[in-house]
Write a structure and sequence with these properties.
Number of helices: 4
Strand order of the largest sheet: 3-2-1-4
Structural class: alpha/beta
Largest sheet: 4 strands, parallel
Order of helices and strands: EHEHEHEH
Strand content: 5-15%
Helix content: 40-55%
Distance between the termini: 36 Å
Shape: globular
Radius of gyration: 15 Å
Length: 129
């Protein structure tokens, strides 16, 4: 059995998107508890502040991952803060539950932008830096 209190990620530079709540918040806090430096990204400053509270290894960045230029902003912020990127957790997601027959183009476009395109662009930006 592994000791989960040990610093398994000492010095590791991590980006977690969608880190204001839920799985993203838990991932960011767990990485930080295990010694990582974490850039936590989300759209709501207050929620990111809650994620970073009492976790000195977490730095919040307010950004919409689907916005033009967001991938470059996130990667550049991580590189400025940590000097490198070791782990990227593409956790940000949007779900718009709509009955079949009532699907609107705007909802589909938003889901594709956040759930598919943003992770692709962010991963590409991180790999090519």
């Amino acid at each position: 059995m592994t000791d989960m209190t040990a610093a398994h990620f000492d010095g590791t530079a991590v980006i977690v998107t969608g880190g204001g709540t839920g799985i993203g918040r838990a991932a960011a806090r767990t990485f930080a508890q295990q010694g990582a430096q974490v850039l936590v990204v989300g759209r709501t400053a207050a929620r990111l502040a809650e994620t970073a509270a009492d976790a000195p290894g977490i730095r919040p960045l307010v950004a919409d991952v689907s916005a033009p230029g967001a991938a470059e902003l996130i990667v550049n912020t991580a590189l400025e803060a940590f000097g490198r990127i070791d782990v990227l957790v593409n956790n940000a997601a949007v779900v718009r539950q709509t009955p079949l027959g009532d699907i609107c183009r705007e909802a589909v476009d938003e889901m594709l932008a956040v759930n598919l395109l943003a992770p692709m662009y962010l991963t590409e930006a991180a790999v090519h830096r």
